[in-house]
Amino acid sequence: MGRLSSTSRAILALVVIGLTGCGPTAEVLTTATPPPTGAIRPTGGGQPTEGGQPSTSSGPSATVDPSASQAPPTDGTSTGIPLVTPTPFSGPVWEALADYPAGEAFEVTSVTSLVDGGFAAVGFQPIPGEGFFGRQQGVTWTSVDGRTWQSAVDAAFQFATLEDVVEFGGAIFVFGTIETCNINLSEDCVEPPDSGSAAWRQTAGAAWERLPLPLSMQSGTMAGVVAANDHLLAFGWTGDEARSVVWTSVDGVTWSETADLAGMDPVSAMSAGPTGVVAFGNRLASELGDLELLATVSGDFNHFGRVDAPALASTIIQSVTMGGSGLVAVGDSDDEDFNLNGVALHSADGLAWTQTSAPDGSFAGASLLSVHAVPNGYVALGRVPLLDEFGVVTGGSWFSSDGLSWRRLAPFGERFTELDTSAAGTTGIVAFTVTQEESGEESVISTISAWFAPIEALAGQ
Fold first, then answer.
1. 212-216: long-range contacts at Cβ-Cβ below 8 A with a sequence spacing of 24 or more?
2. For residues 298 and 304, is the Cβ–Cβ distance under 8 A?
């Protein structure tokens, strides 16, 4: 899914008015834990508990109503089996994963749930001997349950900054940027021909395979990658004028490109829809002197058409998902004083969108960055700036049973710089934040924090 940080929001404004942006610095991965080297897919039987031992429990505990064993209920549906009342989950919504193996990594940039119930995440760390502004090495992480994680560093990701991970067609696809020159090297440093945007694939735990990309994709910038209805889609921009495009593939190897985006420049979020793909973006509306929000759909993955959406200025949709009560999109808008407020939209079919709200007022001052469908509704995650502390935020989450009415769920992370990524799986929702602080004139200390909300806590909302 697409996501725009506070820094990316500034870049978005520049892209909309036609300015080109620079790609991120590159990173590297080293050998993965065998067998085989670099395997990202989790293996093994039962899901471990927080202590690392297999869990024998199948869910929350239950209590038996003693009176139910004396006689069947009066509704005529019982055969005399005692009624069972589940015990409500009483733990915290968000758990800090204190033992997350961040190692030397600077950030976890993307995480996705897997069809086998696990999770895969990617990020980057410095090349040995170099710092935050040096060359990077890609890192991967895997988990069978969202709580217990393993990290791997593979030589396939040397000088790569890994930015997106997605499962598609029975394989894991990773996307990033390769860069062998940086600001600490000589101005005469020349990037090799295979630098720029890159993609890798891993099938059934085999070795990572570098995939070819079309020139417009390799030389462009990918803002996000999604799997939708048997298609793999990447959205971003390319060319000297930062032309907004969507790249589409049915196998992750051969790609087609479209700029028929119904005016979206750029695209900010994308998700599977009932019959194809839905996408949000913006355009610079001269009549408004501001960014205009656009909602679109595509049934053929090549031509996008505008659909009905609220006329919202200065609004960016950061994430969209499809769940049991339709499609939900979240983002934020800013006022004339540059104060952010959360925005949520709902659609039954992707063809018409309406704005929804949080009656408890909890969207005020918040920026909603991601939204996930859970069995009993939707959970949105975002950040809330701390007063009088520039660049420091706290994490917030919101719940909606129907995608129409929202309420504050629970905070997480008292102080951090950015909410980087999150994903929902069968066991719960995992999220990653980062805290970055300057250390001297040429160094940055970057600290990763991992968070987990178990499905039991979410089901009780």
1. 212/253, 213/255, 214/247, 214/255, 214/257, 216/245, 216/247, 216/257
2. yes
Over residues 149-159, the mean pLDDT reads 98
Average pLDDT, the chain: 84
Question: Which of left, alpha, beta for 157 (phi over 0: left; psi -120 to 50: alpha)?
Answer: alpha
The alpha-helical segments, DSSP class H, found in 292-397 are: none
Q: pLDDT by residue (tens digit) across 193-224? A: 999 999 999 999 899 999 999 999 999 999 99
Residue with tokens 């979410």: 458
In degrees and rounded to multiples of 5, residue 45 shows phi and psi of: -80, -115
284/293 Cα distance (integer angstroms) = 9
- pLDDT tens track for 108-133: 999 999 999 999 999 999 999 998 98
b/e code 26-58 from CB counts within 10 Å (16+ = b) = bbbbbebeeeebbbbbbeeeebbeeeeeeeeee
| 87 band by pLDDT with thresholds 50, 70 and 90 | low
Tokens of 252: 């992750």
SS3 assignment for 109-169: EEEEECCCCCEEEEEEEECCCCCCCCCEEEEEEEECCCCCEEEECCHHHECEEEEEEEEEC
pLDDT for position 458: 93
**Ramachandran angles phi, psi of 215, nearest 5°:** -55, -40
**Closest of 215, 221, 212, 273 to residue 245, by C-alpha:** 221
List, for residues 217-263, the tens digit of each pLDDT value: 999 999 999 999 999 999 999 999 999 999 999 999 999 999 999 99
The Cα 233–Cα 271 span in angstroms is 9
Full-model pTM = 0.82
Q: What is the dihedral of CA 423, 433, 35, 232, to 10 degrees?
A: 40
Are the CB atoms for 162 and 140 separated by under 8 Å?
A: yes
Would you say 147 and 171 are in contact if contact means Cβ atoms under 8 Å apart? no
The size of the chain, in residues, is 461
In what side-by-side order are the strands of the sheet with 267-272?
Answer: 267-272, 277-285, 290-298, 305-306
Whether the CB-CB separation of 426 and 113 falls below 8 Å is answered with: yes
pLDDT in tens, 6-53: 444 443 444 444 433 333 333 333 333 333 344 564 433 333 333 333
**Three-class secondary structure of residue 274 per DSSP:** coil
